[in-house]
Amino acid sequence: MQYMLLLYSDEKAWNSFSPADQEAGIALYAAYGEALRKAGAYVSSDRLRDTTDATTVTVANSKTQVMDGPFADTKEQLGGYYIIEAKNLDEAISWAARCPGASHGHVEVRPIWPMG
To answer: Are 102 and 9 contacting, i.e. CB atoms less than 8 angstroms apart?
Structure first.
């Protein structure tokens, strides 16, 4: 079964890190991705740009509304994701706990509901 690991953290904290600290963080994520690949659990992943680059679209009464930024103002922002293959929720939770993002934010685990 596939699960999406959604990584939430305070993007302002990351942006305040020194270049050396950011490089160290990137190395942790690279090692995590390699562990997923070696275990055959990796499907895909990507980082997301900051919320300042986000656009929110809604449709009300057949009219499209476009707003800059995220709809909700929150302390933590969705910063990236992994899609993994896991036997069950317990295994997916185990992978989420190993994700570097779990140590400075939180990782939401969601089973993927295939469309069709």
So the answer is: no
Round to whole Å and give the CA distance between 5 and 46: 11
Cα–Cα distance for residue pair 85/75, rounded to 1 Å: 29
Cα 48 versus chain centre, distance = 8
| Nearest alpha carbon to residue 1 among 99, 106, 91 | 91
Q: Is the pLDDT of residue 41 over 70?
A: yes
CB 5 within 8 A of CB 109: yes
Residue with tokens 């929110």: 56
What distance in Å separates the CA atoms of residue 40 and residue 59, rounded to the nearest whole number? Answer: 40
Amino acid at 44: S
Alpha helix stretches (DSSP H) within 5-57: 11-16, 19-38
pTM: 0.88
